[in-house]
């Protein structure tokens, strides 16, 4: 079992974050991107992390095993007045770290942070309907399935449904 520490992302983490996302994109088909398809460059990732300092309702947390990223969890909120209360959750844990409670701890910390930021009153997310472990994890925290986007993902000739899930804090 890894000795994992949890902390906010720093600009100096940008290269590791991009490498992590590009790697885990090839470990699972459940992410919205494939191996080496992460859409940000290191420079863009640095800027994204820098911009989080000015956003009360957006955060990026890292689960660190020494110098290695075990998982990343984010909440991104709009700056628009009518939508800023709703933070979109994203989370990924590297395959070798799954089943150790890291995803649970990351979500716990995000929910606690969101409850205390003075802006976020709702958290939403999308997940593939066939990602049973993820759906069960989210439901354990009180997320409910609010809708289903049928045939939203096309992978190797097979269509998959996407659950839209949410919870009020």
Structure commentary:
There is one protein chain. The chain has 169 residues and is α+β, with helices and mostly antiparallel strands. Helices cover 27% and strands 36% of the residues. The chain is built from 4 helices and 7 strands. It has a 7-stranded mixed β-sheet with strand order 1-2-3-4-5-7-6, with helices on both faces. β3 and β4 form a beta hairpin. It is globular and about 40 Å long.
Largest sheet: 7 strands, mixed
Terminal-residue CA separation: 31 Å
Q: Average the pLDDT over all residues and give the rounded result.
A: 96
Basic shape:
globular
Q: How much strand?
A: 35-45%
Q: Give unreliable regions as ranges.
A: none
Strand line-up across the major sheet: 1-2-3-4-5-7-6
Q: Name the structural class.
A: alpha+beta
Global Rg: 16 Å
User: What is the ordering of alpha helices and beta strands?
Assistant: EHHEEEHEHEE
Helix content: 25-40%
Write the layout of secondary structure elements.
Layout: E1 4-8, H1 14-24, H2 42-52, E2 59-65, E3 68-77, E4 86-93, H3 102-116, E5 122-128, H4 132-140, E6 144-155, E7 158-168
Parallel strand pairs: 4-5
Antiparallel strand pairs: 1-2, 2-3, 3-4, 5-7, 6-7
Give a summary of the structure in a few sentences:
With 169 residues, this protein is α+β, with helices and mostly antiparallel strands. The chain contains four helices and seven strands. Helices cover 27% and strands 36% of the residues.
Features:
36% strand, 4 helices, alpha+beta, 27% helix
